């Protein structure tokens, strides 16, 4: 891996961070809504203080959040904050910072959505590769291709169907929530198993929803690779099917799938919003959802910025993984 | 001399939607150790099918209907699939047209040589496998550095040499080279042919070279076999083939070659090769043959050995003529 490429990619990453943070800085400021006024107007409607005091309170808070300063100075403060991983303070959950909120919800999302994305990548590619392999038994090919059916079912519907049949009718797994009501989170095995039980249904919904896509694309790649001369020559060399499958067929068919994985990771949060919503789970998706409902601008744009940076970083990592798998792009 | 390769009545069919295509029709061939034979014929005449059938690599919808391929006394068609895996490369090796992509792009050349050895002798120590691979690279005149390189780092000629090196790794008795020089320029073609000749002499294997290039055949082969519509119509020594070809198809083939001393219009062979689905009755060549007789249309000619040593399948020769 050469130094020039590394610095080029890191520079690119910095540009992405800069562009994303600039956009997330300006969008809420272009918006006609003043988040502070929105918040307190809502409080005023439920009673507590008179509307005349509202303007005083808004002016006071605007000063505290630095919203009364000139735009350029605000921009400078904002960028300086980002460099120190400071995304500001939540308007809705006031004393908590946006970073604190992200830290609280991120592990849930990584634990569910990230792991299921990886899991369905492995499962889908394995099944797809076997589905295209002429020596696979027919039942295996049929199982593999039947996963493609689920690809057409919207994730929302899939989640609701799973909750209804497995959770509600059969009562096999809990209906939702991250852990049983009444338990206190701790580090014990019991709590861990309880969480796992609750993550099973949303996990199944996510895997079923995405595994089919991997199966079809891998099957297509597999059929192409089998026609390649090097696979035929490997047979002429007298290699066993196991070695041909692993070293000649799978390794080559997997290459474009890695790019697909990077793209799938980019969709992480989109699926998190849906699935965490249906199964009432904590996580980035739920956090983003509630922030949008309560006009919590700093949390919305904090999460958006965080996700953008996270995905850009993942992309760069995948790009550095790629030459390790394919020697042909090592020298460029 | 006992022949090292004996192909007896080999027959291969492809089952297509339009019917059964006889790609190889009762082919007989004998080859002595160290002998080099060129297999020529137009596209679709069954050259590659014959190579695949000898390796037992015919895939569905194709099938070896019957016949035997005897290498060094062992009938390959009677081996189990497991035994056949072992026989490939160690008894009979296939060298593909390697200039394109016969090498795995994502693993090193060395790894692709080692895995071939490993498949046949899993217990051989690693350094011995390595030494053997390096020796094979040396005999095809490649630098030892190639062992650590990838296919995309090699030129077309070098890739072809690597394929040859892999083919001779286990010193097989028979080497089948399927158009090893196509897609290469003439200088590299010559170098590759010299390499094949050199390694062939080193290990004393019999060579079957498949190709279209008659000039190449004349330069480096001992014998030439001509195929037409899945049948072997003539097997002669190179000298015999180029000076006095016996079968009318061979004669037409030789006539069609451009000559340096005679300026003129190229002579083709009138008509087209027949469809394998609907072969003409009798001799498959009779509709295009200028010397066709009545019995050519109904009676299929038998294989006969002439006084010159040529083997020919034609009614013009033998007792009936």
What does this protein structure show overall?
The complex is a heterodimer of chains A (332) and B (321). The mean pLDDT of chain A is 84. With 332 residues, chain A is mostly helical. Chain A contains 14 helices and no strands. Chain A has a domain at 104-293: MetI-like fold (Orthogonal Bundle). Chain A starts with a helix and ends in a 7-residue tail after the last helix. Helix content of chain A is 76%, strand content 0%. The longest helix of chain A has 38 residues, at 189-226. In chain A, helix 1 (3-30) packs across helix 4. Chain B has 321 residues and is α/β, with parallel strands linked by helices. Chain B has a domain at 1-33 and 57-91 and 98-212: Rossmann fold (3-Layer(aba) Sandwich), CATH 3.40.50. In chain B, 30% of the residues lie in helices and 24% in strands. Chain B has nine helices and twelve strands. An eight-stranded mixed beta sheet of chain B has the order 6-7-8-3-9-10-12-11, with helices on both faces. In chain B, helix 3 crosses helix 4 (126-139) and helix 4 (126-139) packs across helix 5. The A-B interface holds A 228-230, 232-240, 243, 247-248, 251-252, 255, 325-328 and B 55, 57, 85-90, 93-94, 96-98, 100-107, 111, 115-116, 119-120, 150, 152, 163, 166.
Question: What would a concise description of this structure say?
Answer:
The complex is a heterodimer of chains A (332) and B (321). With 332 residues, chain A is an all-alpha fold.
> Element order, helices and strands of chain B?
EEEHEEHEHHHEHEHEEHHEE
CATH fold naming of the domain at 1-33 and 57-91 and 98-212 in chain B: Rossmann fold
Beta-strand share of residues of chain A = under 5%
Number of helices of chain A: 14
Q: What is the H-and-E element order of chain A?
A: HHHHHHHHHHHHHH
CATH topology of the domain at 104-293 in chain A: MetI-like fold
Mean pLDDT of chain B: 88
Distinct helical segment count of chain B: 9
Low-confidence stretches of chain A: none
What does the oligomeric state look like here?
Answer: heterodimer
Instruction: Specify the CATH homologous superfamily of the domain at 1-33 and 57-91 and 98-212 in chain B.
Output: P-loop containing nucleotide triphosphate hydrolases
Instruction: Report how far apart the termini of chain B are.
Output: 31 Å
Strand line-up in the sheet with most strands of chain B: 6-7-8-3-9-10-12-11
Q: Largest interface, with Cβ-Cβ < 8 Å? A: A-B, 22 and 30 residues
């Amino acid at each position: 891996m050469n130094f020039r490429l590394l610095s080029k990619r890191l520079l690119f990453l910095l540009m992405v961070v800069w562009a994303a943070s600039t956009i997330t800085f300006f969008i809420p400021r272009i918006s006609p809504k003043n988040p502070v006024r929105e918040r307190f107007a809502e409080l005023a409607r439920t009673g507590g203080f008179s509307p005349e005091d509202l303007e005083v309170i808004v002016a006071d808070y605007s000063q505290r959040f630095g919203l009364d300063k000139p735009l350029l100075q605000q921009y400078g403060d904002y960028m300086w904050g980002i460099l120190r991983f400071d995304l500001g303070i939540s308007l809705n959950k006031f004393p908590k910072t946006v970073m604190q909120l992200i830290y609280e919800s991120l592990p849930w999302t990584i634990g569910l959505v990230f792991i299921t994305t990886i899991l369905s990548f492995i499962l889908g590619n394995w099944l797809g590769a076997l589905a295209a392999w002429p020596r696979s038994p027919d039942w295996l090919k049929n199982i593999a291709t039947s996963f493609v059916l689920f690809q057409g079912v919207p994730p929302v519907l899939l989640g609701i169907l799973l909750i209804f049949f497995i959770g509600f009718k059969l009562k096999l797994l809990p209906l939702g929530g991250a852990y049983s009501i009444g338990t206190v989170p701790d580090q014990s095995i019991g709590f861990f198993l309880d969480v796992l039980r609750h993550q099973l249904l949303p996990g199944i919904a996510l895997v079923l929803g995405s595994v089919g896509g991997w199966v079809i694309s891998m099957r297509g790649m597999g059929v192409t690779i089998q026609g390649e001369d090097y696979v035929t020559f490997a047979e002429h060399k007298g290699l066993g099917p196991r070695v041909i499958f692993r070293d000649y067929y799978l390794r080559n068919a997997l290459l474009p799938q890695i790019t697909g994985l990077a793209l799938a990771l980019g969709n992480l949060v989109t699926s998190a919003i849906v699935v965490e919503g249906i199964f009432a789970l904590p996580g980035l998706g739920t956090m983003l959802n509630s922030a949008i409902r309560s006009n919590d601008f700093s949390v919305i744009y904090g999460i958006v910025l965080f996700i953008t940076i996270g995905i850009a970083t993942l992309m760069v990592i995948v790009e550095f993984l790629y030459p390790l798998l394919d020697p042909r792009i090592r020298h460029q | 001399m006992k022949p090292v390769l004996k192909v007896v009545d080999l027959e291969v069919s492809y089952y297509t939607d339009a019917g059964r295509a006889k790609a190889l029709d009762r082919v007989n061939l004998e080859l002595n150790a160290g002998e080099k034979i060129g297999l020529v014929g137009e596209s679709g005449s069954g050259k590659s099918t014959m190579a695949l059938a000898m390796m037992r690599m015919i895939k569905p919808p194709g099938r070896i209907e019957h016949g035997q391929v005897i290498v060094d006394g062992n009938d390959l068609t009677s081996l189990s699939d497991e035994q056949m895996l072992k026989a490939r490369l160690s008894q009979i090796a296939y060298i593909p047209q390697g200039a394109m992509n016969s090498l795995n792009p994502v693993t090193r050349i060395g790894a692709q040589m080692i895995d071939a050895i490993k498949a046949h002798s899993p217990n051989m120590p690693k350094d011995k496998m390595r030494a053997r691979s390096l020796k094979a690279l040396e005999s095809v005149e490649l630098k030892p550095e190639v062992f650590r390189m990838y296919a995309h780092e090699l030129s077309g000629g070098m890739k072809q040499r690597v394929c040859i090196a892999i083919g001779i790794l286990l010193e097989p008795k028979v080497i089948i080279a399927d158009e090893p020089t196509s897609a290469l320029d003439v200088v590299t073609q010559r170098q590759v042919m010299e390499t094949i000749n050199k390694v062939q002499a080193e290990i004393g294997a019999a060579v079957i070279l498949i190709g279209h290039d008659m000039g190449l055949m004349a330069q480096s082969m001992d014998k030439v076999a001509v195929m037409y519509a899945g049948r072997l119509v003539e097997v002669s020594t190179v000298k015999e083939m180029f000076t006095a070809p016996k079968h009318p198809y061979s004669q037409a083939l030789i006539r069609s070659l451009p000559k340096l001393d005679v300026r003129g219009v190229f002579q083709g062979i009138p008509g087209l090769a027949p469809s394998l689905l609907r072969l003409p009755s009798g001799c498959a060549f009779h509709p295009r043959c200028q010397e066709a007789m009545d019995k050519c249309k109904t009676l299929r000619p038998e294989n006969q050995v002439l006084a010159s040593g040529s083997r020919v399948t034609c009614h013009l020769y033998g007792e009936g003529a």
